[in-house]
Amino acid sequence: MSPSQNVSRRTALQLGLSGILAAGMTAATVSPAFAAAPRPAGPKRPATAHSTRITDIGPGVMQYALMSGVMLDGVCYIGSRNLEPTGLIALDVAARRVIRSTTLQTGHSVQALAVDPVRRVLYAGILQKSGGPQPNLYRWDLNSPDSAAVAIGRIGDRDVRDLAVSPDGTLFAVGGGGTGAPALWQYDPASGAVTSLGVPSAAVTLARAVAATDTTVYFGAGSTLGGGGATGRAALYAYDRATRVYTDITPSEMMPDPSIRELAVDGDRLLVSTAGSTQPTKLAAISLDDHASYSVATSVGKTAKNFAVLGEDVFCANETGLIRWNPAQGSLDAVTPGVDLGEIWGVDPWEGGLAVTSGYGVVVHLDVDGSVIEQIDLGEAGAPVSAQACMGIAVGAGFAYVGGNGTIARHDLAGGGVTNLRVPGEAKDAEVLDGVLYTGQYSSQGIWAYDPRSGEPFHRAASFPSAQNRPLDTNWDADNGLLLVAAQADTEGGGSLWTYDPATGASTCAVNPIDAVQLVRAVIAVDGVAYLGGDNAQKTGPRGTVVAWDPVEARELWRIETGLPNGIAALESHGRHLFALTIKGGLVVIDRSRQKIVHTADHGALVKGFAALKAARGVIYGVSDSTLFRIDPKTFAVTVVVADINGGWYSGPHLNVDEEGVIYTLRGRTLVKVEDWPQS
Fold it and tell me: CA angle 21-23-29, nearest 5°?
């Protein structure tokens, strides 16, 4: 569909409100009890037979994606991201070539790397989709050119987010993603034992920073993911290795921030940063001898990570470039690189300047003022380019767009070519409107736009409050001429609905339109009304609410509580019916004209987790992690279109349709076209 230049608002919004207003009533909350029998949907009719054809287009996104980088003796060691198999590479920066590589037997990404420079060992910790007995810690011997990384055990938390090696060679690890608060973990290379040193704070949800001396381990945590409610904020603890006692040493200036982001021991001081949200991040230098003695500076931007020390200056990365901080002088300024670096995963001193490991799959040598000395493309240097797990998908005007990390792959559906388009962050979902691609970009990137006809690169079309950092779903509201984006606030809890008018560039943001704890996971526009599907990042609290929302007036019209134990994963509509699919497969059909649930069903056998819905050719198509299926809009019967499609998605499955109603999604990590025609 094309953006409408003439906004058509229907009187009383014509979505069941006409009857309410005629009766002189106000829009009210509707909370049907699920114990009551749903209204019969009428007599069942035989299912329509379909003819289905699947065509492989090619890998959704091909690149060398990365999530970590650290230097030792002129070699940059880099951990892969969302590639199979997970792996490590060694880039000789001076020679501009990959000289070693190894694969890991588990995980999808390597966020945590730490070098033991004395013993010349690289340690790696992985991120993984599910916990279990499999290893998540690895060791790579750098003394032997032909050695492979070997598993050395596992920490009890699902994900390893950071690693540190003390001078005596002991490895310490932190992470999260388990059932409880994250612990501090220790690996003893002499015995090979991995042990928990306890949980310093029961309130936090994620630990992303650790540093160590021979006497003390520093543990930095907070609630960067799954924040809000009663979860903890930034927390910094010193663990005495002799007494095994934790002491809270969090600087008071950092306590309001969501999380400690980075730690590093530099001489006689501990360097600390926070992850910001509603306020800029903070930087601190804390005396190792007296933790109450410290200096704090307010930084620029919402993150600060990857410390690199050059003389008296401390450099670190934020979301747009680099920060130069001089703790002794109290000075701080932004360094604007001479090239877009996207998301930065490593900053190291190198030949009087800095070697920056960029999420764009490049290592860039900069001088201290940000000027580019040289760039090394890792794919050209010999890194293993392969198909990546993907994000959102959009189709239209002859192209299919598939999101990756720092990249959107543009597939020419007629000519067959593929172009990787650089864009910061991740395109979680997207729409093609009048040939222009509009994306919801994680994290805190807002809405970006790209017109393939203009020859211009991607650009940010609209910005929104940085705390509303995670867009999840997009939809085009043709009646109001608005792009709608459903979003989540990772650190604060709750979420928002964004609107963007492509004709004028105007945008709005309604924070917590459902309630203070429910994020907006799904949105669908019908006849000028936006329907919002709620979820909750916390294990307890309300979820699964569906709200009818006026996106122009930014006000609620009515709501329904689904009463199911899981939040809404996806929404779609057909006729007077609104289809809500919950996480783990609960189907709820709502009659919009009566604001009433008329059908419920459990499709957990097809939908084990997240899912997506899209209307095409008179039916509702859905995709889960395993299956492409269709929903009959009259009988509500669900039938399988493609079993075992097993899409290679990173943050939940997606599908989209072109102007002819042809479906595009992933089978494995391959973009496929699915033509599903009803037979007469």
Answer: 65
